[in-house]
Design brief:
By secondary structure, the chain is α/β, with parallel strands linked by helices. 49% of the residues lie in helices and 7% in strands. It is built from 13 helices and 7 strands. A 5-stranded parallel beta sheet has the order 1-2-3-6-7. It has a two-stranded antiparallel ribbon with strand order 4-5.
């Protein structure tokens, strides 16, 4: 959280709004926040690490936030990929020196201000991202010095854009003191695959009052390009619906799309489980019948099958028992 929503305003307005925003989250009892002040505002000729750090301190020193800051786990750091990832920009890996400078300055600030909670998280870029149809794996062979420094100085790392990375890579991130692995678009991408599968099955059973999920998502995306125009070079329908960036997730709450999902849910749940299961791909049937024992509806069953692939991977990577 930071100035991003107000980047077209002056830095003063953006920072004041950031403080108000963060304060609202703290009032709602969020116990972990990431403060990112690296956004260049309207009146900024340039943005550097010193300015970014000072803005972070200004937020933390604000009266309303300072009172509540001991109750949360703080994440700082500016090595953040463009929200939603990006196809065009080169990845700049965070250097050890930068990690040392930023973390030691922050540790000094915590000590000077007598904060009770000394441990914090730092966002760094290990060299990974996901693109429209592929992923780039992080470079972790030489990460051990950064890991050692973080352990010695009592802070952890947060990794952004870990979507679609294999379990082996997620394991390596956790072993290198990445205690927070951010994932999002992979989950919504898999959810949309579940919707499209059920939409195709629905068409075989219903002649009338059937869903037009893809059609309505595309219609909403064409009517409002705000959430995808900065991410896709190619504007074809296939990319809009099938990109791993999954910008279509921002349109699932549009009225016509929500109506389609509700119709789909009602139609799919009316179907006999065994008739329905015959049209599910063979590799999904075992899980379908397993989840059916939990008395899940057809719709929730398929939804869970698709998103659990991701959830299981992250649970295992983060050393949680997964039953």
């Amino acid at each position: 959280m930071g100035p991003l929503p107000w980047k077209n305003s002056s830095s003063k307005i953006a920072l004041n709004n950031s403080i108000n925003l963060i304060n609202k989250f703290l009032n709602k009892k969020f116990d972990k926040i990431h403060i990112d002040t690296s956004i260049k505002c309207k009146n900024d000729r340039l943005i550097n690490s010193k300015k970014i750090f000072n803005r972070t301190l200004k937020i933390l020193n604000s009266t309303s936030i300072k009172k509540k800051i001991n109750n949360i786990f703080l994440i700082i750091g500016t090595e953040v990929p463009l929200s939603g990832s990006d196809d065009n920009k080169n990845i700049i890996i965070t250097h050890l020196k930068q990690i040392q400078n930023e973390s030691l300055r922050f540790i000094k600030f915590l000590n000077d201000q007598k904060f009770k909670r000394k441990k914090f998280g730092l966002v760094v870029e290990p060299g990974m991202k996901y693109m429209n149809s592929s992923i780039k794996k992080p470079l972790l062979k030489t990460f051990f010095k950064k890991r050692e420094f973080s352990v010695k100085n009592n802070f952890v790392f947060e990794a952004h854009s870990t979507d679609y990375q294999p379990l082996k890579i997620l394991n390596k991130l956790v072993d290198n003191n990445f205690k927070f692995l951010k994932v999002g678009p992979e989950l919504t991408y898999n959810y949309s695959r579940a919707l499209y599968l059920m939409n195709n099955i629905e068409k075989k059973f219903y002649k009338k009052k059937k869903t037009e999920i893809k059609k309505n998502i595309l219609l909403s995306m064409r009517q409002n390009k705000k959430y995808w125009k900065d991410y896709y070079n190619n504007r074809d329908n296939k990319l809009l619906l099938n990109s791993k960036l999954d910008r279509s997730r921002y349109y699932l709450n549009c009225k016509n799309v929500k109506n389609s999902i509700n119709i789909l849910k009602n139609n799919i749940n009316k179907l006999d489980k065994y008739k329905f299961s015959r049209l599910i791909p063979k590799n999904l049937r075992k899980d379908f019948f397993l989840y059916s024992k939990k008395n899940l509806s057809n719709f929730d069953n398929i939804k869970l099958i698709f998103i659990s692939k991701t959830l299981k991977r992250y649970f295992i990577a983060c050393k949680f028992d997964f039953i």
